[in-house]
Amino acid sequence: MDKREFEELALKEYDGTLTQAEKAKLDRWMAERSDDCQEMVDQGDLSRLLAQMDTVEPPPDLMANVMSEVSRCSQPQRTNEISSLPSFASFIAWFQPRPGVTFSLGAVAAMLIMAAVTLVTGPFEQVSSPQATGSIFHQQPGFGIDDSQELAFDLGVTKGLVRAGLINGEFLIEVEAIGESEVSIEFEIDPENLKFKGLYQNSGSQSDFSRNNNRMRLVGHGVFGLQLLFETANKPIAPITVYIESIGQTWRKTITFNTPGVE
Amino acid sequence: MSNMTDAQLVQTCLDGDIKGFEMLVEKYQKTIFNGALKMVKDYEDAQDITQTTFVKVYQNLGSFDPRYKFFSWIYRIMVNETMKFIRKQKNHSDLNSGIESPHKTPEENFEEKQLSELIQEALMVLRPEYRAVMVLRHFADLSYRELGYVFDLPEKTVKSRLYESRKRLCCLLMEKGVAARG
Predict the structure, then answer these.
(1) Given the DSSP bridges, would you call strands A208-212 and A215-232 parallel, antiparallel or unpaired?
(2) Nearest C-alpha of chain B: how many angstroms from A16?
(3) Distance between CA atoms of A143 and A137, rounded to whole angstroms?
(4) Is B176 within 8 Å of B114 (Cβ atoms)?
(5) Per-residue confidence at B64, pLDDT binned at 50, 70, 90?
(6) A185 vs A245: CA distance, rounded Å
(7) CA separation (Å) from A209 to A202, A212, A225, A228?
(8) pLDDT for B5-36, tens place per residue?
(9) For site-directed labelling of A150, which of A23, A25, A140, B54 has its Cα 20 to 30 A away?
(10) To the nearest whole angstrom, how far is the Cα of B59 from the nearest Cα of chain A?
(11) How far apart are CA B18 and CA A66, in angstroms?
(12) At A180, which helix (H) or strand (E)?
């Protein structure tokens, strides 16, 4: 048994799901390691302490407030059949047009065609189609970003979304990707226009992040979600170019922003 | 309607009867609120997060996959909202400020505060992603598989986070004079 297995068995012990054989194994391990033995005792006590924590009643008007807000939303509709993978499911859900939301299927088709063109023309080459602008992307409710814009990409083995926009006066870029291979997502951003503040991992496997002057690069694998936060320079947001690469296939797009209120 | 499963209530709502959603809010408001409260420690902030969570649940109800448990999905949205909130807070102020009283001994701290408060304070010292795993495992009773779904993480990563969180929490509670060591 190694430390990892010990941790696994210790968790089972706290959960009360340890089998006799596992218990014997754990006991043998602890008999030889007093530190781990003490740790088990401490953590056992922790379960007891946590069980004593109070449960608080929610505010009495919470439900009324929720229902009042909900009554202002449009009626939800079932989207298409979704994948068995939860994150892919949420990606699809994110991607589905919804009632009351202007969504250009033509724009999406154009994006996919552009992606295909890019695959043919090779890495980091300019796509001859017009640049994407905010006007062709819909604003999806429910994700907390105002004036946001989205780019969907599909490289076959890797699919995902890049979403960017202002939130409370700061600029946020969100990336969500799913794939079976490594994907590199690179942003070309004018540091005079947007000052980098931090990177946050939302979900999924750990990703690598590097930056050099006006280039920021994320390399992730499998399913992951990330956020990059920037300070604005109190002037209109300059165009941002996104390069996405997965096993030699590259997708490139420039996002331009209309940023009312930031002058 | 009170005997309906979550999936049936979702369907009722998608069929146009908002009463189905009201039943879901009624059923989950307490657990979602308490989960958020243990994550952010502030009653009003927890209220805001709970409210936003339910509104987003409603807006995205059409994408709910009935093959998954409704409460796992709702927790997933709650965790995302809470993380967003914590990030925003972090940019404006130090969320942990005022938690520790440096001039007092652990014994004095212990005497002054209720056990719940001390545990809550210790929870707040954990990194938010670790705190969230602790909260959902111990207070919402989610399985490792469900936690994996909520956090988009493999089960083994969830377990490892949980183990580390418990270990850290034990140390923090001992420092605060709460005898996790009996």
Answers:
(1) antiparallel
(2) 13
(3) 15
(4) no
(5) confident
(6) 6
(7) 14, 11, 13, 10
(8) 888 898 899 888 999 999 999 999 999 999 99
(9) B54
(10) 6
(11) 12
(12) strand A170-188
For A223, other C-beta atoms within 10 Å of its C-beta total: 22
Place of tokens 């724009």: A107
* Sign of the dihedral defined by the CA atoms of residues B83, B89, B94, B96, in that order: negative
A92/B21 touch (CB, cutoff 8 Å), yes or no: no
Tokens read off for A115 = 């992606």
The ipTM (two decimal places) reads 0.80
Q: What is the pLDDT of residues A46-73, one digit of tens each?
A: 777 787 787 889 999 999 999 999 888 8
Instruction: Give the mean pLDDT of A191-205.
Output: 74
Measured between alpha carbons, how far is A137 from B139 in angstroms, rounded to an integer? Answer: 40
Answering whether pTM is above 0.95, one says no
Cβ distance B170 to A67 less than 8 Å, yes or no, reads no
A145 → chain B, closest CA residue: B84
Q: Which of A11, A13, A35, A53 to mutate to test the interface with B (most CBs of B within 10 A)?
A: A53
Tokens linked to A10: 């210790």
Whether chain B has a CB inside 8 Å of the CB on A206: the answer is no
- Number of other residues whose CB lies within 10 A of the CB of residue A216: 21
| DSSP secondary structure of chain B | -TT--HHHHHHHHHTT-THHHHHHHHHHHHHHHHHHHHHH--HHHHHHHHHHHHHHHHHTGGG--TTS-HHHHHHHHHHHHHHHHHHHHHHHS-TTTTS--TTS-HHHHHHHS-HHHHHHHHHHHS-HHHHHHHHHHHTS---HHHHHHHHT--HHHHHHHHHHHHHHHHHHHHHTT--TT-
